[in-house]
Automatic annotation (TrEMBL):
<dbReference type="GO" id="GO:0008233">
    <property type="term" value="F:peptidase activity"/>
</dbReference>
<comment type="similarity">
    <text>Belongs to the Ntn-hydrolase family.</text>
</comment>
<keyword id="KW-0378">Hydrolase</keyword>
<dbReference type="InterPro" id="IPR029055">
    <property type="entry name" value="Ntn_hydrolases_N"/>
</dbReference>
<keyword id="KW-0732">Signal</keyword>
<protein>
    <recommendedName>
        <fullName>N(4)-(Beta-N-acetylglucosaminyl)-L-asparaginase</fullName>
        <ecNumber>3.5.1.26</ecNumber>
    </recommendedName>
</protein>
<feature type="binding site">
    <location>
        <begin position="251"/>
        <end position="254"/>
    </location>
    <ligand>
        <name>substrate</name>
    </ligand>
</feature>
<keyword id="KW-0068">Autocatalytic cleavage</keyword>
<dbReference type="Pfam" id="PF01112">
    <property type="entry name" value="Asparaginase_2"/>
</dbReference>
<dbReference type="GO" id="GO:0003948">
    <property type="term" value="F:N4-(beta-N-acetylglucosaminyl)-L-asparaginase activity"/>
</dbReference>
<feature type="binding site">
    <location>
        <begin position="228"/>
        <end position="231"/>
    </location>
    <ligand>
        <name>substrate</name>
    </ligand>
</feature>
<dbReference type="InterPro" id="IPR000246">
    <property type="entry name" value="Peptidase_T2"/>
</dbReference>
<feature type="signal peptide">
    <location>
        <begin position="1"/>
        <end position="21"/>
    </location>
</feature>
<dbReference type="GO" id="GO:0005764">
    <property type="term" value="C:lysosome"/>
</dbReference>
<feature type="active site" description="Nucleophile">
    <location>
        <position position="200"/>
    </location>
</feature>
<comment type="function">
    <text>Cleaves the GlcNAc-Asn bond which joins oligosaccharides to the peptide of asparagine-linked glycoproteins.</text>
</comment>
<feature type="site" description="Cleavage; by autolysis">
    <location>
        <begin position="199"/>
        <end position="200"/>
    </location>
</feature>
Amino acid sequence: MPVISFLSAVLFLSLLPPCWGGLPLVINTWSFKDATTTAWKTLNSGGSILDALERGCAQCQSEQCDGSVGYGGSPDEKGETTLDAMIMNGDTMEVGAVGDLRRIKDAIGVARAVMERTKHTLLVGESASIFAENMGFAAEDLTTNKSLDMFTKWLNGNCQPNYRQNVSPDPLTSCGPYKPSAVLQQRRSVQHIDIHAHDTIGMIVINQTGNVAAGTSTNGAKHKVPGRVGDSPIAGAGAYADSAVGGAAATGDGDVMMRFLPSYLAVELMRTGTDPTTACQTAIKRIKQHFPHFFGAVICANTTGGYGAACNKVPGFSSFPFMVYNLQSTDPVQRAVDCI
């Protein structure tokens, strides 16, 4: 390379913001380093963006990341751990997702099977589990000593905190059974926030030629009402990918966040030329207008290798960590963004 060309390239790279590292790119929520590494190695050993996304999320499932991904965490009101997951192909706009999945550990694998083995987008509950078993996934008990202990302590604490409202007997003093109360009251106040009660691995993978995949995996909110499905398996809420633009993924209070489709909004903003950081911030601010105390964050990446993140500032949560792996480093790097 001529000296002048080399110097020009160095100058160009020095002027780029720190949130740009070229392609390929793997970015995911939280400090889930092993998931990032697995996805990157899969991609760089010839795997597809879907392979990388699936194996990265599966790594988190097997490690039970933060107790909020995979088996043995977040028991519902019956003490059962159920799983949600989604995978999206930004080339074809195909999506596969599962919600309230029981007995099957590999939720992201089942989500991919929904995408590739059916014409549907989302399967839920017992029927999703039966589908998974028919596709060759092993049925296993998702309960562990840790999840059982968590459930027992919750029962001994009069089933608090929980997600019931406008019911009797009073959920502040009883575990139910619950019946509708005579008077409906709007209760939008936020209870004590446990940031580890809502964690999700959300991941975006972009290969050298700009093809994008995005996905999620989680065991949902602790002590949720049985049958509850959060934002993670909902396209546009938990994650979204479009290889013409980029991808986004969310984590946090799914019952609130899913109402605003933050991942879809962020991608659409990037489509208009908005940089990833600003796109993430706008998606968070849209929710904040209506629920100023919600807990949540969004990561974004575009097809040039730019990336960003944003989170809502609440007590005990003033910054958000996320992982990035690109050609600028030989290992995944943890980044953090101050919440707004």
